[in-house]
Amino acid sequence: MTPDDGGNWGILGGTFDPVHCGHINLAVQVAARISLDGVLLVPSYNHPFKNRCSASFEHRMAMLELSTQENEKLVVSDIEKSQSLTGYTIDSIKTVKKRYPNAVWSFIIGEDNVKDLRFWRDPDRIMKEVCVLVGYRPPHDSENILRDLPSDRIRMIEIEMRDISSTKIRKLLRSDRSDLRLKEMIPVKALKYIKENGLYR
Fold first, then answer.
1. 53 secondary structure, DSSP code
2. Which of 159, 175, 196 is nearest to 62 (CA)?
3. Which of 14, 65, 76, 92 has its CA 20 to 30 A from that of 25?
4. pLDDT in tens, 69-98
């Protein structure tokens, strides 16, 4: 199934530099908890708040595709590059909805992103366009922030979170590419791709 077929879908955006098990876990568990038909993974091409990615867009796409090829509910999209988007979430959401008008869309984030949501470009518009699905591990600490956001447009979804970051992974890859912890953090095929292509040295 793809978003062209309609159904209820989530969007998970990010630099995915590199993709890690936390990203995949967030997408899979949120989809399972609320019976989404699938999740569209959208790697950023231009990111307004971060410096240039360590790996190229093509490498990040390849790692995502390898990491999701055995899960038919996860679909990787190059829409930010193919449509030359700004990198702002609101623009990506509107473009995805226009590209796939038969699907109903939500936007997925981890709880660590809730504190920044109000600083994104046009957050009110984002929440008019989509419901924001927040994956969290209890006890969650976003209650004060959530009070200032429309309760009918934010949905907290309890999942088993994994404490993994791309920043930590890049540091490990630079210091010791044989570190056994990497196998617990990165999907097997993505880790193999990283080593074969000499990424993050």
1. P
2. 196
3. 92
4. 999 999 999 999 999 999 999 999 999 999
